[in-house]
Amino acid sequence: MESFKQAEDLGYKKGSKMFALAVRPILGLGQEKLDRRRQCLRSLGFSENQILDIWRKKPSSLGITEEKIKRNVDFVVKTAGIPLADLVKYPNLFEYSVETRMIPRYRVMEALKSIQVQAQAPTKKGKKEGLSFVQIFIMPENRFLEQYVNSNAESSALILDIYHGRREIWKADH
Predict the structure, then answer these.
(1) Which InterPro entries match (predicted)?
(2) Cα(58)–Cα(38) distance, integer angstroms
(3) For residue 124, what pLDDT is reported?
(4) Model confidence, pTM
């Protein structure tokens, strides 16, 4: 019963799909761990309202460990330059693996920039504009590979090596 109350206190409406999704991690955590996750997010610069927004939008984010929260926020904010506010808008960024998803994609985009290939996608008006790292990180794997790794026949082997971490710095070969 306490877990149901905790879910309601977080703003989930009893009987809703989101309520059901929130109860599961709450049951596994308990109040002490939930409080530690909240404190961890606060220490990283999130306000109480932002924390509640994150948890309401993505109930499964309640189950993410403090270590993973810190690692993801550190990479996303310090390395990729994504503002904290975007983590609130896109709470999936807390769940992605830094090592297997974000770092490889970041390396590819940085390599593409360094060889003057503009990472672009069509807009609704048919024009092209650069994608943000948020868009790159949330893009489905097959679409990312197709659009950025395999799209340029001349450099796709090199970009694939960079993606898989087999080449540290693109410039080392040139």
Answers:
(1) MTERF, MTERF_sf
(2) 14
(3) 45
(4) 0.75
Residues 73 and 146 in one domain: no
Q: Map residue 25 onto helix, strand or coil.
A: helix
Last residue of a domain, one of 63, 94, 125: 94
Same domain, 12 and 33: yes
Does 134 share its domain with 159? Answer: yes
Q: What is the pLDDT of residue 165?
A: 86
CA 1 to mean position of chain CA atoms? 32
Q: Give, in order, the Cα–Cα distances in Å from 45 to each of 17, 49, 74, 85.
A: 29, 12, 11, 10
- Please determine, for residue 116, whether its predicted confidence score (pLDDT) is greater than 70: no
**Three-state SS for 95?**
coil
**Cβ 26 vs Cβ 3: under 8 Å:** yes
Closest CA to 73 of 47, 41, 49: 41
Question: What digits encode the pLDDT tens for the residues 89-104?
Answer: 999 999 999 999 999 9
- Mark which of 79, 94, 109 sits at the end of a domain: 94
